[in-house]
Amino acid sequence: MGSPANHDNVASLATDFYSLLESFKETPFYHLLFEIFLVLTVLWLILFRKPRRIEKKLTEKEKQELIDEWQPEPLVPPVDANHPALNVRVLDGIVGKTIEIDGKKSLNFATFNFLNFVGNPRITDKAIQAVQKYGVGSCGPRGFYGTIDIHLELEERLAHFFNCEEGIIYSYGFSTVASIIPAYSKRNDILFVDEGVHYAIQKGVEASRSTVKWFRHNDISDLERLLVEQDIHDKKNPKKARTLRRFLIIEGLYMNYGDLCPLPRMVELKYQYKYRIFMDESVSFGTIGQTGRGVTEYYNIDRRKIDLISSSLEYSVGSIGGFAVGSSFVVDHQRLSAQGYCFSASLPPLLAAAAIEALNIMEEEDTTLCDTLMEKSKRLHQKLLDIKGYLIVGEDISPLKHLRLTNSQNTVARLEEIVEFAQTRGITITVARYLNDEHRLPEPSIRLILNVEMTDEELEFLCTVLQEARVKVTV
Amino acid sequence: MSNYQTNKPGDDNNRTSDHRNREEFEETPTWAAVVTVLGYAILSALGWLRDFLRHIGLEEKRTAHDPNPKDFVPLYQSYECFYTRNLYTRIRDVFNQPIASVAGAKVHVMERVSDDYNWTFKFSGKKIPSINLGSYNYLGFAENQGPCSEQAIKSIETYAVTTCSTRHELGHQRYVKELESLMAEYLNVEDCIAFGMGFATNALNIPTLAGKGDLILSDKLNHVSLILGARLSGATIRTFNHNDMKDLEAHLRKAIISGQPRTCRPWKKILIIVEGVYSMEGSLCKLPEIIELKKKYKAYLYVDEAHSIGAIGSRGRGVVDYWKVDPNDIEIHMGTFTKSFGSAGGYIAGKKNIIDYIRVSSHSACYSSSMSAPIVQQIISALSIIMGRDGTNDGQKRIQQLACNVRYFRRQLVDMGFIVYGNNNSPVVPVMLFMPAKIAAVNREMLKRDCAVVTVGFPATLLTESRVRFCISAGHTKEMLDHALKAMDEVGHLVSLRYSKKNPHHRWVELDHADYDKEYTS
């Protein structure tokens, strides 16, 4: 029952509304557009615009004050003048089986001269001939007239020695593995690395920027645990998993521990979990295996199952540099992507000539160098086990052994005392030196290295001196 | 389109704008850039077509096969190798050419033939004697006869080839100490330390000098070893435009005012890394201006003199000698022994406390074999000759010969109408080619005319800036340089390399040779 007044109100409202609509039709188009734009702007300001941070605008005076006040730290921190690296023994002569320090001769158990090639007359002759033909330096990287025919010969010989398709040489042992790993493994790829690998491998792993999974030294069950974890992770995202490369980085004979890697089991796991194996045989080349062809020969594993073997020419071979051997598929990639190969001067020809001659000696028909070395290592190991007070770390066939003191007396200072005492008796040994930023700093030890030319009497003498030193230090 | 600074008259520092120090980087002609990019586009299109044909089986796959089973993740992504398979392999014969003699002023290049378009090579057995314009042999010490090699041979007999031990253990020989003190004297600094490899010197020692919380300001065109070292150090890296002092100053100011990103804490220290001579550009760093900036903003300076030590400066002491600045103003002097001394290895020199710290914490000193005796002896002999200690003035003659050769060679190239980059005094002479096909053409044609040259393209340079890079040596005689210039003149005419818009184009016979010969008599 609407009263006339109500009805009038509604009617007037309706008329008002109607006239409003009419007036809309009459307003100019641009006016409508402008109003709609304003409305939309207001809506946007309320809903979408983030509040702008009020930037601190500094005046020129304030900027100059900041610049004047800033004090940098010194470029390097101060160094203790008594640090052992600043007070190293200075030598002057051939560092072979014997060395002369301060005019006294001593037996050398400290340098990586496994096959006693340092000072070998055949190698010296060949090096001299190379200088007379090629001069000393190579004057350029491999891409720009730095490839000399002697490099190609050395690469072929190394590939032939290991019975692989191709070899590649580098001019510096440290850079070899440190350039190889980043050439294949990029960001997001996965590296399974043994914790006991030496420093150059650690730097290569760092340079690659890949995801690194460390497993306990020589602990296969820890490696399997990591592989299983990665497998579970892969199953959640199979598409991504198909683009991630996986590598296992190990050493044949570990320089910091003197023990062999469990290669057969690792090769089995390779085909199960689909990773590639890069093995560094710096120490095991020339020392392990009947003919010195490394851990693959010792375990009788087909070398084609290992994707890449890298090694150094600075230990058994008695030259300088490094190399890698493997299938052409793997090795050829380094010629364009390994930084230490492409952007560095090539190996001086005389060092390549020395390495070729060393290979000649190792490959001779009647040589028993490596066999003899393994035998002597076993005998030395037995003799060392008989000395009380030392812990011998390493395999019995390894020519590289680490000696530690027992009964929680193992400190660098005590080991240095033993080294000094041994020097006075005519035995040169050394404490293994590491930098503080190793991934897992090994415990202090004396690194004993056996030279194949050492006689049994000399080994006995070594053990006697070590025994006396132990007694002296504990007193 | 070149974005480098050319010196304009009225620059801040009078020394750097002196006409003798003039650096030229003529702009790329637009049509050349367009044709170059078109060239790469056509090559890429052909490459895709070939890849497709290989995929469907119409064409044979020539690359090596993975010996592992098929379900392994592929070792290389196919796009990574696209460039190698389709562009690089076409002109592969031009790179990595083996030689069979000493890399001196003349070299024997081993001839290679390929039956299958550069996938495999065979040696024909022929050796091509050529003038060596590619090896880094600035002072001509790459010799297999003479006092240097004789002394090197004596040192092999006395010390053997290696010590098989590291510097921290038993590799510290007397001859290395001698080298280090001689080098420190040569550079007029307090102390020096030597390493076995130049690349490793940078890559393994920059991490000991800089770390997290530090800032590294590196020139855009720095060498790969410097970039690797900076990356491994963990510091923040910012690049400034090549030789652009205004950009460097802007970066320094911004860094000190704003501090570290996100936390705004002040930087612990700032390290500026530059090179003496840039090996692809031929330019010199503007050392006086950089030192001024460094003192104003309290930054530290690292100068890599790989190509400039021995080759630049009136006494061969590098850019420090060239610009006549105080060596104590530069914190780290770094250099290599490969280029001017005919040996191998690198060094770092500076104040004693810095060098002591590097001795203690360097990766090379602790884990790498010490330097080989003949290598060290070669450097000592070369240094003695350069410093005049052997009683002759052979060293000074070599330095002057190199300077004459450089001036003689450069002026004629510029006057013939080629675009030549770099400083008038730098022994590195890049001549622009631009187009990818010319990289191969110039190299092969020059070899036919008995000149061994180095041609570089992408990725060592920018895509449109391929070049042929000559390295002049003190061992080159005037006749050798004339032969090379004649060859370059012919090849330039054959392949159309005269791009310069600033300088008129001439053939070699049209030049007034008496004018250039004056370089040798002055």
UniProtKB/TrEMBL annotation, chain A:
Regions that span the bilayer: 29-48
Cofactors (names): pyridoxal 5'-phosphate
Protein name in the entry: Serine palmitoyltransferase 1
Keywords for this protein: Acyltransferase, Lipid metabolism, Membrane, Pyridoxal phosphate, Sphingolipid metabolism, Transferase, Transmembrane, Transmembrane helix
UniProt keyword Transmembrane helix, yes or no: yes
EC number assigned by the record: 2.3.1.50
Cross-referenced InterPro entries: Aminotransferase_I/II_large, AON_synthase_class-II, PyrdxlP-dep_Trfase, PyrdxlP-dep_Trfase_major, PyrdxlP-dep_Trfase_small
UniProt family annotation: Belongs to the class-II pyridoxal-phosphate-dependent aminotransferase family.
PANTHER family, alphabetized: CLASS II AMINOTRANSFERASE/8-AMINO-7-OXONONANOATE SYNTHASE, SERINE PALMITOYLTRANSFERASE 1
GO biological process: ceramide biosynthetic process; sphingosine biosynthetic process
Pathway it works in: Sphingolipid metabolism; Lipid metabolism; sphingolipid metabolism
GO molecular function, one term: serine C-palmitoyltransferase activity
Pfam families cross-referenced by the UniProt entry: Aminotran_1_2
Species of the source: Adineta ricciae (Rotifer)
Residue span, Aminotransferase class I/classII large domain: 107-465
Cellular component, GO annotation: endoplasmic reticulum; membrane
Automatic annotation (TrEMBL), chain B:
Record's subcellular location: Endoplasmic reticulum; Membrane
Pathway noted in the entry: Sphingolipid metabolism; Lipid metabolism; sphingolipid metabolism
Matches recorded under Gene3D superfamilies: Aspartate Aminotransferase, domain 1 (3.90.1150.10), Type I PLP-dependent aspartate aminotransferase-like (Major domain) (3.40.640.10)
Biological process terms in GO annotation: ceramide biosynthetic process; sphingosine biosynthetic process
Metal-binding in keyword set: no
GO cellular component entries: endoplasmic reticulum; membrane; serine palmitoyltransferase complex
Keyword line: Acyltransferase, Endoplasmic reticulum, Lipid metabolism, Membrane, Pyridoxal phosphate, Sphingolipid metabolism, Transferase, Transmembrane, Transmembrane helix
Residues covered by region (Disordered): 1-24
Essential cofactor(s): pyridoxal 5'-phosphate
Domain called Aminotransferase class I/classII large: residue spans: 131-487
Designated name of the protein: serine C-palmitoyltransferase
Transmembrane segments: 30-49
Family: Belongs to the class-II pyridoxal-phosphate-dependent aminotransferase family.
